[in-house]
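Colleagues,

Please find the record for the four-part complex below.
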Amino acid sequence: MNYDPYGCPIRYWLSIFGDKWSLLIVRDIMFKERQNYGQFQSAGEGISTSVLASRLNHLEKYGIISKSHDEDHGKRYIYALTDKGKELAGIIINIIDWSEKFDEKTLVEENFISALRKNPEALMKKMMS
Amino acid sequence: MNYDPYGCPIRYWLSIFGDKWSLLIVRDIMFKERQNYGQFQSAGEGISTSVLASRLNHLEKYGIISKSHDEDHGKRYIYALTDKGKELAGIIINIIDWSEKFDEKTLVEENFISALRKNPEALMKKMMS
DNA sequence: TACGTTACTTCTAAAAAGCAAGCATTATGG
DNA sequence: CCATAATGCTTGCTTTTTAGAAGTAACGTA
């Protein structure tokens, strides 16, 4: 049980998601249909605006999210998941599964958990669409 | 597509693994058979000793790793994955899969990747044993 | 052309991480 | 039974990162 230590996939993951906020932004887009700056900020998680700006840049730079003008709304931008970002679904499903299993305080909708454990592939496809 | 915002599983994950080092320690135990302080420290990743000590405490506190005396070796301790820690295998497999797919610089043994994509369940069981 | 909305940037203080050094505990060799 | 070495930390200081409040810039609307 081993793999090449150079170009480690775990380190790559950590270079993008090794902080308290980046994965929450992905979660917000994926599950909560948040898509612009104000929505991320007022999500109640308490991210400071300076860190939010830097995380959005970071995620865009690494190709996880895209940024485009919202035609109908002044200076507003729309942040969305790229394909690379959507394909985080598999990881996120596993995180949800694991947390639900080991943390008493974690609450996940029963529908979601049973879908996850019965047919994860189908759930993933739904999440990525 | 939604789940209850309270007791969020992603936040639980981040409370344990939302930093640059914790997941690397798990990787070291899982794949590199490292199991004591000196081995983690000299792994070449550059973790500072004070942070290493705090991360090991943290992981132990959250039930990811266990700490026991090495009977044969002076003051040495053995750090090992608990069941909860071993069950991170599913998440880690997905991270490896994703990184390999999207990062050119990431290198994973071909055997591992093909095992992962052909029969992830079997690989997981192997990893957890 | 003033005003609200949105998306940031800037500044300062607090917290965390990095780094070098030192200390404590447990063998081990003389 | 005392000096030495190996291991696992702890401590104190410096540097980097984050938090929080405030301010600015771009855009559309009245």
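Residues 19-20, 46-51, 54, 73-76 of chain B lie near DNA strand C (CB under 10 Å from a C1').

Comments are welcome before we finalize the supplementary table.
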